[in-house]
Amino acid sequence: MTESNTTLVRVEVLAVVLAVRPITRQVEILLWQRGRDPESGRWALPGGTLLPAETVDESMARQLAQKVDLTRVAHLEQIGVFSAPDRSPGVRSVATGFLGLVPAHEDPDLPADTGWHPLDRLPPMAFDHAEIAQRARHRLRGKLSYTNIGFALAPREFTLNALSRIYRAVLGHEVDATNLQRILTRRGMLAPTGTRAAPGPAGGRPAALYRFTVTEYRVTDPFAAFRPPE
Amino acid sequence: MTESNTTLVRVEVLAVVLAVRPITRQVEILLWQRGRDPESGRWALPGGTLLPAETVDESMARQLAQKVDLTRVAHLEQIGVFSAPDRSPGVRSVATGFLGLVPAHEDPDLPADTGWHPLDRLPPMAFDHAEIAQRARHRLRGKLSYTNIGFALAPREFTLNALSRIYRAVLGHEVDATNLQRILTRRGMLAPTGTRAAPGPAGGRPAALYRFTVTEYRVTDPFAAFRPPE
DNA sequence: ACAAAAGTGTTCGCGCTACACCCATGC
DNA sequence: GCATGGGTGTAGCGCGAACACTTTTGT
């Protein structure tokens, strides 16, 4: 209980930044390639060390803004603490992992060593970062169906078809645009903008554009069972 | 990015240990009363500092076993990192909060300064521990309906009435024992033991005893919508 | 006119809630 | 017998999946 012989550790924050990229229509993760040892050449999650005057959440937001020019992270949440004693060499280091979501069609200026990679074919990863990425993937999948977290992956305005492609990329299976509309509408999450998108080159009816009414994280379907009466 | 001028911090683990106590039929939390400054007299969550050779999860389990003789914690999960710079005086300290669940009818030997308190009328709490407790409460409520987390609150064998009282205590509203049985049975979580409980003093049909078939955490109802086909 | 793509409506079924009814035991 | 409590059955319905049908555009 005395603080004298307490071991001190380095606290770092690491972000699994995900986006559904318009070109590939896949979930991709933001990684940077290490230029020096240890683990030189391997790919790492963006992040860094906690400063004295900030919380881990503040630190994570700051580091994303500073290092990879990501100011428009639409959602940022903790996914867990990674603390295996041998997870990195040198000073004992404990990491708080985060899930960060960037809307499609955002294309931030990235440093030269930084880029997007498909989440289901990760390059050789540094330290325990692959494990953290997998945890984030799992969290995102789980929350997509009972929260409004999809808003953080969609652009500000979108057609229902485009939105269903985003859901499909995350979940890995077909998502009916029809049902998607009804479910999100019933939950009060979807509003038509009144405008329409331009039709494709082969013609076709122009799609209506929609917007999410709520742009902050919210649990929209909290109870699988044991709902409170009324 | 050099490690030379990196600030080092103390990493601690803190547990919100909850149980539905048979006497009060309420959710109660395990707290100990601080005997010295800072925050002398206030109540604190059990926990302590991370050791060099352990993960935070291992540390939490160890500290609960050592300090409050809690070896039978049926469920232990991280609920988040609490890292406000001024959350405690002295060395910068970052806490990983845990939710721990103890089955009803367990009555571990506790130190003299340690005891159970009703969760919805917390005594004066030290540091940011009240906030951590609230987070844990919220997590438990949320997960009760779509996971099997209830197993960690129930004794090894129980009547359906007793189980429904446990669910009621956590959720704060009525839970129909009839429907509870059907739902848990359908999810394959419930098995009758074949034995029966003794009837109450006023008579009445003796209740059948049940057991949970699965005694590890599992998500039983992962999709509110967008289920994968087949 | 025809193809292409979007939007609407309908059917179906599952799973949860509510509640009535039947069963077993003590007095 | 009656009171007490446990267990079973059933009706209703909200929600989501699947899919056919209609509407609007370009060629």
Let me know the largest β-sheet of chain A.
7 strands, mixed
Report mean pLDDT of chain A, rounded to a whole number: 94
Please give the oligomerization state of what you see.
Answer: homodimer
Number of strands of chain A: 9
Catalogue the unreliable spans of chain A: none
Tell me the structural class of chain A: alpha+beta
Order of helices and strands of chain A: EEEEHEEEHHHEE
Number of domains of chain A: 2
Beta fraction of chain A: 25-35%
Pfam family, one (chains A, B): NUDIX
Organism (chains A, B): Nakamurella sp. A5-74
Protein name (chains A, B): NUDIX domain-containing protein
InterPro entries (chains A, B): NUDIX_hydrolase-like_dom_sf, NUDIX_hydrolase_dom, WH-like_DNA-bd_sf, WH_DNA-bd_sf, WHD_NrtR
